[in-house]
Amino acid sequence: MFTKATPFAKTGKLLVTLAVAATDPTGLATAGAGLEAYLHLHDTLSNQNPDLKHLAKDITNDLNAALKNPTFHRPKNADILLPQMIEAALPTAQDFTTANLDAEQIIALMIEKLTDPAHKNPDIITAFTSLFQPILNKITNDPRLTAALAPAIARKQLQTADAQTDLLQQILSNQQDASRGDLITLATKFNIPNAVDLSTDDLRKQLFLQAEQLSELQARVKLMEEKDPRYANLLGAARDALNAGNIKQARTLIRDARNTLREVDLIPALTRDAEFSELDARAALTENNAQEAYTILTACADSFAALDADTPLQLRLNFAIILFEHALRYGGNGLQLAAQMNRAVIDKITPKTHPEFWGNAQNNLANTLAQQGIRTSGAAGTDLLHHAVTACRDALTVYTKADHPVDWAMTQNNLAAALQEQGTRTGGAEGTALLHQAVTAYRDALSVYTKADHP
Questions:
Q1: What is the pTM for the complete model shown?
Q2: pLDDT of 87-119, one tens digit each?
Q3: Number of H helices, E strands in the chain
Q4: Are the CB atoms for 257 and 234 separated by under 8 Å?
Q5: Contact indicator for 282, 293 with CB cutoff of 8 Å
Q6: Where are the alpha helices (DSSP H) in 100-165?
């Protein structure tokens, strides 16, 4: 039992205040203010929003209860070290928005701030995580806080984008006051799956993701527009259509620009043609239509077959990454389609004729299958992880340490991750053996990924 809870008396209030400080119009949150200033800010914000005062009280009570009756292993000197660690690692207001209210990411940011060797001992880190992650989970999932912080998170997301549209501003500024019906209507407009079944908070989160996609797409259209003035009118109109939320019209204009390219150039500029195809595919992904994006990208790769045999392979490898990354961020069936795209490369070559392409495709396939496996329960997920491990080992037949040390290390790391997940799921002696193989693969990767050469 912890004998002293006094060092944490203000922690609950502080944690809530630091999160809410992201909404502070005075600029205190970004000024690196001290703890007492944050406590003063808490009183100010609590007067404006009584719910925050109640939340802070709830969190303080939960923290004190966890300290008095810990359910986790308490290593030696925990009574002394844990108060020091929370003082050294208190999250900033920006940490809450940067982590998008994800408790695990906030904990990771906190742990990065710990520099004292005594604070970095694995046992005390585990205790620190066990104590504070449930508290942060409660804070970050509390509707009183998410409602207050939603606009600040949206601003943080859009500050990193190259372009912002009137539509995005409308989404972000009106959501707080919008009714659930308005949110569902907006979600339906962007083909967000199962919008009616989502909670109000989840609807807001999905709309923020949609805003992120639209902003990225508009920035790409603008970049293409600046490359060649011949397409400025059509692509400018496409950006206006995106600005209005009319993705279908934007896609039509992108295709019109592509057709203009074919008419102007006697010999079609295939590279530019591929860029337009990628824009069209990304717009389809913004409509949550990964299958159509896959069809567009496959046709684009096939169009280069008359030029040479290798360019379609390289394009497929690149396009598979687009589908993979979109699926990781936004869900959908992009992982399955990315796997198909990589298999289309593998089926056309051999490790002898195209060793680097083959190794690249096998490694990317392994990553895709591993992510599918992680997201799939039961025997189907286990089977996907097994195939991921096989693909990694296939890649290693051409990515040798002698000839391709960095690619070899990367693949060893990917192999280790797949084995680790496989071993954790399997359990028993077989699972232990898989985890042993994972440790070996991680250590192999570290023989190349040294601190000196690849910090």
A1: 0.60
A2: 778 776 667 667 766 778 888 888 888 888 888
A3: 21, 0
A4: yes
A5: yes
A6: 103-112, 122-141, 143-159
